[in-house]
Amino acid sequence: MGLLDVLLGRSKPVKPDLDQLFGLTSAAITLEAASEMRPTGLGSVCFAAVEGGAFAEIQQDLHTLLGVESSQDSYGYTWLLSRHRPSEVTDLVTDLHAVNSSLEEHGFGPQLLCSLVGFKDPEGRSLALVYLYKRGSFYPFAPLPGEKRDSALELQINALVANDLRQEKDLSRWFPVWGAPGL
């Protein structure tokens, strides 16, 4: 990073640290102990798909090895969904790590956008802990009907998991992931 970057307020991008995903296991324990949010056993990885045989082969390998399900959202992004029993958060996170690592190792890291793990409370409120690949940080996303957000719940959850996850401090980066598989 040069002097001009410092003067203009530009910062060096954070290098993704996929091992941060394993913090989701302790965050799930924290949420169970301090709130009524429980893991759903669902998690997903979002990326911008590219054309080509190598990319298709990696996706097929992930489907075969991990049993992930593929879908595309209305923006054209691809989601790979992993399903486990709600008590198997560690296995779920391991799958998400494997998907991200595989794509990264084969040169498709720039296509990775985010990963998430889903939670629900007894009243049916949904929550996702979202990992932003390019920022190396997490934020909570709590959707409400009608593409609205429960901002109060998001801030509460963010405070609860502060010791478990590297948090995204820039709230403008807490992007909504409406209809994300696993949410």
Spell out the key features of this protein:
single chain; 183 residues; alpha+beta; two-stranded antiparallel sheet; 8 strands; globular; PspAB-like
Your description of this structure?
This protein is an alpha+beta fold and 183 residues long. It has one domain. Helix content is 33%, strand content 25%. The chain contains five helices and eight strands, in the order H-H-E-H-E-E-H-E-E-E-E-E-H. It has helices spanning 3-7, 23-34, 53-66, 89-108, 151-160; strands spanning 38-47, 69-72, 78-83, 112-120, 126-132, 137-141, 143-144, 148-149. A six-stranded antiparallel β-sheet has the order 2-3-1-4-5-6. A hairpin with a 3-residue loop joins strand 7 and strand 8 (148-149). The longest helix is centred in the middle third of the chain and has 20 residues, at 89-108. The protein is globular. The chain starts with a helix and ends in a 23-residue tail after the last helix. The mean pLDDT is 90.
